[in-house]
């Protein structure tokens, strides 16, 4: 079943057809790998779906509702969340408070409104559960700025997860981390999809990661969808191997 469906969605920047009438489908419960060389249009497509950008044309339907004209906040409330290619954390706050703040924001509360210790307790308990799920519970009281790169990426995903989305976009969750740190990050992403009721779209440059973890892969090139299939189908797809894989592995 389609959780998300774009119909001929378009975003041009001057002469650059960043996203050119794209029909993109995400099915309920899958972990979808979105690949394509630099400039293919991946981030722009995600920005259109999450509401950071308005499309020039086309339609975006999420969970049965047309969200094309909704704001970022309305879409978060509907259940669309994302993490960023460059992590988006409050470095001067603790790991725990980064997650707690997201939970407060999700609930539409401010700290002042929730001065009641009991309410704070519920938020901190939930933050603790999220950190445990992400293997960060021992770092709860550290400043986010003091985390190692792999842990920062994990916390960034944890913060997006704390919004309790139905659909989670992860823009390069393993970029800039060592090969050794990639598997733990992707194992947790897989676990929140398999047992956390989340559907995930992962933009990823590391082809080993994409082929290992994706249920399905969509390959973009110059603003259009070049191929769509299982990892096996994409691996064998000649258009993908010639246009894409040679170039992404280099950069
Ligand atoms: N805000 C913008 N203004 C102008 N051009 C942009 C903007 N954002 C993206 N582009 C261009 O659109 C194309 C697609 O970019 P992007 O979606 O970031 O690709 P990817 O994420 O696949 O690397 C690129 O040519 C990029 O330079
Ligand atoms: Mg990008």
What report would you give on this structure?
There is one protein chain. The chain has 251 residues and is α/β, with parallel strands linked by helices. The protein has two domains: 2-79 and 165-250, P-loop containing nucleotide triphosphate hydrolases (Rossmann fold, 3-Layer(aba) Sandwich), CATH 3.40.50; 92-152, no CATH class. Helices cover 40% and strands 25% of the residues. It has nine helices and ten strands. The chain has helices spanning 42-50, 72-78, 95-106, 117-133, 149-161, 179-195, 207-213, 231-236, 238-250, and strands spanning 2-13, 16-27, 31-35, 57-62, 65-66, 80-83, 167-171, 199-203, 216-221, 224-229. The two termini are 34 Å apart. The structure holds adenosine-5'-diphosphate and magnesium ion.
SSE class: alpha/beta
Number of helices: 9
CATH class of the largest domain: Alpha Beta
**What is the fold-level CATH name, i.e. the topology of the largest domain?**
Rossmann fold
Largest sheet: 6 strands, mixed
User: Mean of residue pLDDT?
Assistant: 91
- The CATH level-2 architecture of the largest domain is identified as 3-Layer(aba) Sandwich
What gyration radius follows from the Cα positions, in whole Å? Answer: 18 Å
Amount of helix: 40-55%
Provide the number of structural domains.
Answer: 2
Order of helices and strands: EEEHEEHEHHHEHEHEEHH
The bound ligands are: adenosine-5'-diphosphate, magnesium ion
Which percent range describes the beta-strand content?
Answer: 25-35%
Write out the strand line-up for the largest beta sheet, numbering strands in chain order: 6-7-8-3-9-10
Number of strands: 10
Beginning-to-end CA distance, first to last residue: 34 Å
* Global outline: globular
Low-pLDDT residue intervals, each spanning 5 or more residues: none
Find the CATH superfamily of the largest domain.
P-loop containing nucleotide triphosphate hydrolases
């Amino acid at each position: 079943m389609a959780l998300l469906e774009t119909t001929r969605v378009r975003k041009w920047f001057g002469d650059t057809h960043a996203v050119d009438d794209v029909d993109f489908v995400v099915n309920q419960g899958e972990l979808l790998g979105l690949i394509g060389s630099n400039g293919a249009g991946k981030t722009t497509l995600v920005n259109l779906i999450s509401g950071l950008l308005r499309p020039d044309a086309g339609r975006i339907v999420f969970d049965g509702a047309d969200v094309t004209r909704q704001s970022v906040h309305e879409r978060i409330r509907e259940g669309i969340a994302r993490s960023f290619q460059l992590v988006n954390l409050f470095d001067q706050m603790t790991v725990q408070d980064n997650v707690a703040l997201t939970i407060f924001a999700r609930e539409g509360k401010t700290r002042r409104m929730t001065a009641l210790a009991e309410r704070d307790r519920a938020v901190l308990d939930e933050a603790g559960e999220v950190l445990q799920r992400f293997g960060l519970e021992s770092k709860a009281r550290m400043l986010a700025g003091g985390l190692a790169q792999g842990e920062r990426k994990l916390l960034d995903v944890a913060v997006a997860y704390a919004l309790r989305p139905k659909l989670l976009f992860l823009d390069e969750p393993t970029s800039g981390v060592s090969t050794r740190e990639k598997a733990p990050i992707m194992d947790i992403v897989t676990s929140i999809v398999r047992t956390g009721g989340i559907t995930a779209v992962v933009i990823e440059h590391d082809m080993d990661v994409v082929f290992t973890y994706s249920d399905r892969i969509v390959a973009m090139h110059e603003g259009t969808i070049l191929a769509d299939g299982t990892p096996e189908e994409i691996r064998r797809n000649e258009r993908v191997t010639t246009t894409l894989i040679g170039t992404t592995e280099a950069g």
